[in-house]
Amino acid sequence: MRRWTWGVVLLALGVPATAAWAVKKDEKLYVKARNTRVLKSSVPTADVVAVLQPGQQVTWKGADPKNAQWHQVTEPGGKAGFVFQTNLSTKPPDMELVSKDGKTRTIDPAAFVSSGAAVKALSPGAEKYGKEKGGGYADAVAQIKKLEGLALKVTPVEIDAHVKQAGLFPVVAPDTKVGPQAKKAVK
Length: 187
Prior knowledge:
The chain contains 5 helices and 9 strands. By secondary structure, it is of the alpha+beta class.
């Protein structure tokens, strides 16, 4: 049976497909999420070995046999650890396009994320267009600007607290701290 046919059969049986299917041991994968934790073991509360940013490459060592949602990797500095599968991709993140003075250029995804531009819903050009168009467009611009303001007030620490309180799976770190994770009681 062809490889893709096996994939369809496995998906039909409820076996999750992973980003690592297309790679072999010791090949490269890319980090997709900001502040992706590389953990000492495949336990979500394990010590943090490294914190990676979008576009960084890791060397894939295989899925954890005990929990296939976690994949063993070696980070760029040579430290081994485990990363949650949804934070990995076989393809590098797309370069972000920015425009200034009528010229378009690409920028590195990690630089784009750290610049804060990734959380902006409207570019200055789109904002200007909406305001000039008036009516519902101007209202939509005002609403989006208000949402952007609210989004800027939410910190990674608050997101982390919400994830824990809601019982969601913590796959990214609230900061770039390496070492033991804080063991705080969740109310």
